[in-house]
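Proteins fold reproducibly. Look at a concrete instance:
___
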Amino acid sequence: MEGSKLIINGMFYIFLTLFFIYIFIKEKELVKKIAVYKDRFSDYIISKLGIKKDKIKYVIRKTIHYTETIGTALILVLVIQRFYLGNFMVPTGSMIPTIVPKDRLFGNMMIYKFSKPKREDIIVFKEPIQNKVLYTKRLMGLPGETIEIKDGGLYINNVLIKERHYADLGEIKGTSWLVPKKGDKVVIVPIGKYDEMFKDQNIDVEKVQKYLLENPGAVGDILPQLEFQINGVKTGMLLDIIDKKEVLDKLISGEKVEVTLDEDYYMALGDNTEGSYDSRMWGFVAENRIRGKAFVRFWPLNRIGLLK
């Protein structure tokens, strides 16, 4: 990891941690000060509304009090979960038997601010298909590695990973992929035809973008068949590139697109590879999408333990 990023991340966490320490030490004083401001604000609202009845005044003061209390607690919890200790529920069976549906996990949200993700890490990341929800998968392919799935095995740089079975499904079926790394030159080549709904001369690129978001995995339905190449070698999809307007303009018009990557990418797979919607289907995960590392299951109580 670059030294400048380490320094920036370190300074950020120092200040954020000092802030929480300050809140903890000065809790009583802060509560008193906030109470004064709440009373002033309540009086201001009551005065502005011209309220005379004591019962209504009481309701307003209580409403403001509980709103501030709940709001402050919610903000603190969200900050802690985003930057320190994440709390996740896994809704699908894509990580069976390691994680089963409805398991609740804690995630280390600091670790990748100071170190690179490692193979076999169970990562929590914002998926690149609709860019809305967090996925939990196992990181298997590192930047610059060649990945192939054959005969029920995952091969990395021609070395078999023996820990688990992997199904040869999705776009990777029958091929090998080179995992993109920072500085690689990516070429996207349109080699097919596009759908009737986008064949007219006045193609609405925003309509294409909206369709891609609403129909995960439908890239091949509306765009030319795309071939992604890294340094001349065919590889998997990079959805973070093709949803940009200037790129879509070129692809729809039949032009190839060339991009030099400014960050590393990874391949994320589910342990339950017969039933996992993962990198085999939609391509690689950009490093900036990785939020943290899931490291312990805390629910249900009879299955508490570290994740491996």
